[in-house]
Amino acid sequence: xxxxxxxxxxxxxxxxxxxxxxxxxxxxxxxxxxxxxxxxxxxxxxxxxxxxxxxxxxxxxxxxxxxxxxxxxxxxxxxxxxxxxxxxxxxxxxxxxxxxxxxxxxxxxxxxxxxxxxxxxxxxxxxxxxxxxxxxxxxxxxxxxxxxxxxxxxxxxxxxxxxxxxxxxxxxxxxxxx
Amino acid sequence: xxxxxxxxxxxxxxxxxxxxxxxxxxxxxxxxxxxxxxxxxxxxxxxxxxxxxxxxxxxxxxxxxxxxxxxxxxxxxxxxxxxxxxxxxxxxxxxxxxxxxxxxxxxxxxxxxxxxxxxxxxxxxxxxxxxxxxxxxxxxxxxxxxxxxxxxxxxxxxxxxxxxxxxxxxxxxxxxxxxxxxxxxxxxxxxxxxxxxxxxxxxxxxxxxxxxxxxxxxxxxxxxxxxxxxxxxxxxxxxxxxxxxxxxxxxxxxxxxxxxxxxxxxxxxxxxxxxxxx
Lengths: 178, 278
Fold this sequence. Notes:
The complex is a heterodimer.
Chain A: E1 2-10, H1 15-27, E2 35-46, H2 51-60, E3 70-74, E4 88-96, H3 100-111, E5 118-129, H4 135-146, E6 162-167, H5 170-176
Antiparallel strand pairs in A: 1-2, 1-3, 2-5, 4-5, 4-6
Chain B: E1 5-10, H1 17-26, E2 30-35, H2 39-45, E3 49-52, H3 73-82, E4 87-90, H4 92-100, E5 113-116, E6 119-120, E7 123-124, E8 127-135, H5 137-142, E9 153-160, E10 164-167, H6 175-178, E11 179-184, E12 205-209, E13 215-218, H7 238-246, H8 260-277
Parallel strand pairs in B: 1-2, 1-3, 3-4, 4-13
Antiparallel strand pairs in B: 5-10, 6-7, 8-9, 8-11, 11-12, 12-13
């Protein structure tokens, strides 16, 4: 079974990312990245699912990627935080524990004959830090902002209804450059 | 005795604040809308109760209610809720209360519940329809909003995409403690199946409260059922019968609907509090 993931972002500045960043600055100014980007993250899983399969899906369904306003790219998994020259980056992947979007797309793609067993939709947040920052400090900031444990702590995911995966790897930096 | 002041907090993207203020006024209280950045004015006004109305605060960016919960004006609401003042969150207001940690409020300040996207066999996504509610036994005794709903089944509409109350698995044993309102049919019978439970909410929950009972977060919109003419004419049960009876009467324009019971309870509660203080 292979999984192919893509990251989709707005071509224009993302208002949700702007709001999230300004909220982080207000609640914890010392724990805020210099840059925050938001992606829709789609993972397609299937025995015969290939990059060509996913390209075909993306071209066919503009609900997944609207080419007029969004750009997309394949994204690998695994790796460590990367310094892209301007930013040290890390990612947070937020997924609903029970998600109708993923279930509905799984049903649609199967019905349309695509070789996909499962679709998983998440939101990927990429944190960018232009200053010198240790890996420990980076992990601490990202983890702190990722999970809403209290009203004044954390933002990106509700731990009761969502899961969080930290991505501290080179691919986060790659995404930031696109 | 002065007229109780009920603050309606308007966030960017709220869209039910004016009808909420209108039903507060119609209930004999004074409703006043405070914008999210008027926290000084809110502090000076010292309201007797608070309502967070429905809508899409901050366009539901990041997650419904997540950004609104962290606004400075909520510092004051949280503080006054701690003093025992009544707080009601309706729909998006409920999402803000959950993200604030005010409900279920088992551990002060901690976020211990979620309002997840609707997810039930036969239906997903945004849903706008009338539902039936009944109040939990414990809640009618402690919540200022629910005292007039004792033993009643009331039709109240919902309109949301994220209204499914969820909890950590380890908290299953204490969900009943925070249960305030549950979805049911017109006879008061509960079911975990759609459409009686419209969104897959845990234990059929339509509303939850804090341990003291003064903070209530509910997904249905009582302000949209305040007048009898707002109730659909084909609604089964007592309220539908009332609606049909009043249909050709001039009195229908002023007859109260089931949603009025929530606000009548608050008005009586605030009047009792005021008389005790004097």
